[in-house]
Amino acid sequence: MPAPIRLRELIRTIRTARTQAEEREMIQKECAAIRSSFREEDNTYRCRNVAKLLYMHMLGYPAHFGQLECLKLIASQKFTDKRIGYLGAMLLLDERQDVHLLMTNCIKNDLNHSTQYVQGLALCTLGCMGSSEMCRDLAGEVEKLLKTSNSYLRKKAALCAVHVIRKVPELMEMFLPATKNLLNEKNHGVLHTSVVLLTEMCERSPDMLAHFRKNEKLVPQLVRILKNLIMSGYSPEHDVSGISDPFLQVRILRLLRILGRNDDDSSEAMNDILAQVATNTETSKNVGNAILYETVLTIMDIKSESGLRVLAINILGRFLLNNDKNIRYVALTSLLKTVQTDHNAVQRHRSTIVDCLKDLDVSIKRRAMELSFALVNGNNVRGMMKELLYFLDSCEPEFKADCASGIFLAAEKYAPSKRWHIDTIMRVLTTAGSYVRDDAVPNLIQLITNSVEMHAYTVQRLYKAILGDYSQQPLVQVASWCIGEYGDLLVSGQCEEEEPIQVTEDEVLDILESVLISNMSASVTRGYALTAIMKLSTRFTCTVNRIKKVVSIYGSSIDVELQQRAVEYNALFKKYDHMRPALLERMPVMEKVTTNGPAEIVQTNGETETAVLETKPPPSGLQPANQANDLLDLLGGSDITPVIPTAPTSKPATAGGELLDLLGDLNLTGSPVSAPAPQIAQPPFLLDGLTTQPLFNDIAAGIPSITAYNKNGLKIDFTFERSNTNPSVTVITIQASNSTELEMTDFVFQAAVPKTFQLQLLSPSSSVIPAFNSGTITQVIKVLNPQKQQLRMRIKLTYNHKGSAMQDLAEVNNFPPQSWQ
Description:
There is one protein chain. It contains 33 helices and 14 strands. By secondary structure, the chain is of the alpha+beta class. The N and C termini lie far apart (83 Å). Mean pLDDT is 82; it is low at 594-700.
């Protein structure tokens, strides 16, 4: 068989390929030749073939068939074969493949080899891809090499020990005796790898960390090494841009950071050397900046002196003036982490941070914006808000939402006056109204309502702001609300804060009507405008007839929300005109309730007010359809029918024909309904209200109860009753109890059944289950089973317990036959 081509020739040939298909053809041809050579057990060219296979592997082609050949090369006595074999093992093998275990004995023999370079190959391979089994078997050999006097082997053994500790942490103590003399080594390679090993041990074991702090006195040794590096003269072997071994300095600083964290003695021992590094390191080159950055991180993480922390923040301030964008970004990120603990020191660099808002790089701009908001306080709020509002004017759209939210929060917290607060929020709404959060409108309305002396000023400013521009919907909503509420102040021109404007009643109505017919107005905005027009019927005297005409027009609007409002307002004019002034009188001052819940708009009689609600889980029976569908996705399967919510409505109950429409294609058999139900409120269940009989039997007719769920102290029992109005309806009452020592809050029970059934959940009695079985939550489930099939149900439980959100799914299949037959 002819000799295979050399690796260099293969590379040259592959590079001549003009297309990917041509390259693939060359690779396949060469792989076929290599396979043939492997089958013939050609020992002469095995090394060359494996080398070519590794090149193909680097190009992304499959090379797994060369794994065993790598093992054969490792077992060879020739160094060149071993080198390629170990390289192939590191590239083609990993611990997920059992083949790698065949290497264990070869590596063990090579670790005891007389040649240091063979030992080095074995250490590199074990440190690269050794599994936990291999590490356990070979840790003893690695520990012996860690104690050898050969620096070449010691540095490789230290890195291999790091891999062994990561794979088998319990072997850490084996290497503890060998670490005692590692830091006394003169060789920088050994020092570097020793620091890496010590760092790994300290990070993984608190006991090791305490041992090195107290018994080994590691901090003084590291301080001595770092001081020698700083004070030593030029060393061509370790010099990088005029700095002696910056890689070792960075590693030592990281280890000092771990040792000094939450330890006063260690922190005090390293304060002086950290100050020397911070003041003596050259900043003109990137190498020096890397060391200074690690120094800053160490100073901030240990219990350092206040002067040293100020020095660290000043270094970050100098970084902000650097031309390198990466350095500026790193400085902003670090300052953002330290601004809470060293606020005054960071404040000194406020102007530089604000200048970063003008940077072209979006990541730097975002960090500068976050840091600017963190620097706002009562003393600088006016100046900082001016800069941030300017930034809001010119920034990209992706920044506007976060910037507007930050300005709102800062203005609410540090506003020097109510007028300034209102002006600032109006400026945000004018500039970036489409990007503000949903709660911005009710919050501003509440602020305006509570600022009684600013009503005339505010309504005049808002009126000017929306003249001819309805693009900022939140601004138009607030303006419509204020014009409806304080339109009389606008027309009377009673503004004392600035020069009043002369506005007639017709001009005010023209603006609101323009909002109603504008294509840019959302449905919610039109609702605000129509309600404002209705309110003005009690504020204005000369345009009441015009208002009646506008309201009556929208009684036939295709927008259901507008139509409903207009119909109700028409009824006020026609039937309850004597009540209209009282219903539409000015809103009282709203009390601000401080909770963690979201602000929500509550509409009452067409007027909009703000209410701050506690965050509570909605009752299961009132959950919207999309939440029910989410439950179905979680429960899985296509044979599940959704929950029918019990939505209260003012519509009276009607005859059985409408009921059949609601139930769809269910085959309901029974006598036709001959008379309509009594004119009462809609019953909570679809099948209720057809007769005047009780909903279900007073006695459970001997149906035994079951335990549907019992886990983690939560127990849910089902009791059963049959409906008197329809034998196909089973009424299930759940009782949830809690046997743990702490109550379960925000409890929500959800259920789903196959499509042949229909299910309804009523509201639960509570959302809190008391501890120690001292009380229960009850909730009623109604199931329509017209085909008398065996009942199956999937349930989902969510609640908070011991500060954690809990969630579980379960399937209930043990319903007694009496409940469904």
